[in-house]
Amino acid sequence: MQLPIVNHPDYVAKINDDNKFPIKKFGALAEHLLKNDVVRDFHTPKECSIETMRTSHSLKYINDIKNKTLDIKAQKKIGFPINDSVVRRSFVATGGTVLASKLALDAKLACNTAGGSHHATFDYGAGYCVFNDTAVAANYLKKKRLVKRILILDLDVHQGNGNSEIFQKDKDVCTFSMHCSSNYPAKKSKSDIDIELQDNMEDNEYLNVLNNNLKKLNQNSYDFVFYIAGVDIHHEDRLGKLKITDEGVNKRDQMVIENFYSKKIPLCGVLGGGYNKNFDKLIELHSMLHKNCASFF
Ligand SMILES: [Zn+2]
Question: 0.85 exceeded by the pTM?
Answer without folding.
Answer: yes
